[in-house]
Amino acid sequence: MNAVDVHLVRARQALLNAAAVVPHTDADGLAAGAIALRARDEGASDAVLLPRGTTPFAPGAPLPGGPLAILDWGVRELDRPGVLVDHHLPEAAPREDQVVVSSYGEEPEVPTAALMARVVPDAPPWLAAVGAVGDLGPAGFALPECAGVPRAAVRRLAGLVNAPRRLPDGPVRTALALLVEHDDPADALLDPRVDELEEAKRAWKAEFDRVVRTAPVVGEDAALLRFSSPCQVHPLVATTWSRRLAPRVVLAANDGYLPGRVNFAARGGTASPDEFERLVARLGLAA
């Protein structure tokens, strides 16, 4: 075996030794979590799904003791042994008792579920594809880990399992269960519980349609939309208005997503981090 194969064997063993699987709750994280849970002969009820606004790296996060499998949460300092699988820029080096599997810098981008298919070689390619398409759109189908999957079913399922996390109390665990319990995406889509995901998607769309009509405050180089919604609508609101108001930076500020906080999404423009910070302060949102 070469060094890469040895590293993946270490990651696989760390996954099996973990006290729990902690997946992110978007389509990529849930698909990665489903691959991990199936490899461990566990169900969706065994996964640790963190509440909104919490990460596994935060002090006091509601986590079990022992080593963990942290999937699609980034790579940051973790105060225990474990395996971390992710595709974003790592923010910390692993300790000796930790294994990191990262695809950061690979071209094309390899999302976490496709990375997990490397860690668990007998994982169903359609699960890797659900995560890849959830993150990359149709480009995800081009990854070798996703070869030969039924595209229409994967596309629909990726959109459905991504919907619950955008609601304050969406059926995230139901979405994970569909990925863990079925052998192909067509079967998963026939599960009666899909109705819960369809309803979550409709509820999110209704909320997006409401807040996207917010009138922006438009300046020379920036625009602000401020609204209150318990749903994760601000990223797409910012994206939608950035197309209409190019080349300005568009900030969508959501006062209702987390108690006591304003959550931002910024799209468009060419502001540097320092310029962006000044822009936020100028718009009266520094707090």
Question: How would you describe this protein?
Answer:
- Helix content is 40%, strand content 13%.
- It has 287 residues and is of the alpha/beta class.
- It folds into two domains: 3-201, inorganic pyrophosphatase (n-terminal core), CATH 3.90.1640.30; 212-282.
- The chain has a four-stranded parallel β-sheet with strand order 1-2-3-4, covered by helices on one side. Strands 5-6-7-8 form a four-stranded mixed β-sheet, covered by helices on one side.
- Helix 2 (27-39) packs parallel to helix 3 (112-119), helix 2 (27-39) packs antiparallel against helix 4 and helix 2 (27-39) packs across helix 6 (172-181).
The overall pLDDT average reads 95
Instruction: Describe the global form.
Output: globular
CATH domain topology of the largest domain: inorganic pyrophosphatase (n-terminal core)
Percent strand equals 5-15%
Number of strands: 8
Report the CATH C-level class of the largest domain: Alpha Beta
Strand order of the largest sheet: 1-2-3-4
Largest sheet: 4 strands, parallel
Instruction: Kindly report how far apart the N and C termini lie.
Output: 53 Å
Number of helices: 10
* Secondary-structure content class: alpha/beta
